[in-house]
Amino acid sequence: MQQIDTTNDPAFTDLSTVPPSGRIVAIDPGTKRIGVAICDELRVTTRPVEVITRASWKKLLERVKNIVAEYDAVAVVIGLPLESDGSESPMSVEARGMARKFRLSLEIPVYLQDERVTSYEAKSRLWERGIDPRDARKLVDSEAASIILSDFLERLPR
Fold first, then answer.
1. Of all helices (H) and strands (E), which one includes residue 35?
2. Helix, strand, coil fractions of the chain, as percent rounded to 5
3. Angle formed by the axes of helices 133-155 and 118-128, to 10°?
4. In the predicted structure, residue 35 carries a pLDDT above the cut 80
5. Distance (Å, whole) CA 8 – CA 83
6. CB of 48 closer than 8 Å to CB of 138
7. H or E segment and range at residue 157
8. Is residue 141 over pLDDT 50?
9. Which of 38, 85, 129, 148 is 20 to 30 Å from the Cα of 47, by its Cα?
10. pTM for this structure?
């Protein structure tokens, strides 16, 4: 688990507002692909769901709304890709903007989770499972979303 907390809008960081039970969707934002993962209702396990090819905001919002409805999710967590020293990156600014838009467009709470090195960890996990590197490129984003969600769940009070 990554230990560094980030300074964010309290709406994205106040864990007391996380619903006490139910599935949570995680999103790993990328420039070309967006990974999606989900946890079980008891929040014990996480698993990759799919990779969304990045297109318009409207298409992304529609797909995420469908995933939220399909899994009856109670919250969304978006990976915040900070630089290794904790500073903002162009992608972290974009992730914060995405979180604000989702917060306005969804009827469930939205949170941010530090996601430094999750893509490297995802590649490592896929390699350890013997996934061919060509196939791993298609799976790494959703695997990273699963790691983001696991890290978020570990931060929740038990």
1. strand 33-39
2. 45, 20, 35
3. 120
4. yes
5. 15
6. no
7. none
8. yes
9. 85
10. 0.85
CA distance 99 to 104: 9
Q: For 41-132, where are the alpha helices, taking DSSP H only?
A: 57-71, 90-105, 118-128
* Chain centroid, CA 107 distance in Å: 17
Identify the bridge partners of residue 79 per DSSP, sorted by sequence position: 113
* Cβ neighbours, 10 Å, residue 158: 5
For residues 12, 56, 49, 116, the Cα torsion angle rounded to the nearest 10 degrees is -50
How far apart are the C-alpha atoms of 2 and 146, rounded to whole Å? 14
pLDDT in tens, 72-128: 999 999 999 888 888 888 889 999 999 999 999 999 999 999 887 677 677 777 677
Specify the DSSP class assigned to residue 22.
S
> What single-letter DSSP state applies at residue 82?
-
Record the tokens describing residue 77, joined without a space.
């967590």
**Structure-block tokens of residue 93:** 């600014």
Phi and psi for 53 in degrees, rounded to 5? Answer: -75, 130
Task: Return the H-helix or E-strand segment holding 106.
Answer: none
Residues 6 or more apart in contact with residue 102 via CB below 8 angstroms: 61, 64, 76, 78, 110
Domain covering 19-155, topology: Nucleotidyltransferase; domain 5 (3.30.420)
Which residue has 């984003």 as its token pair? 141
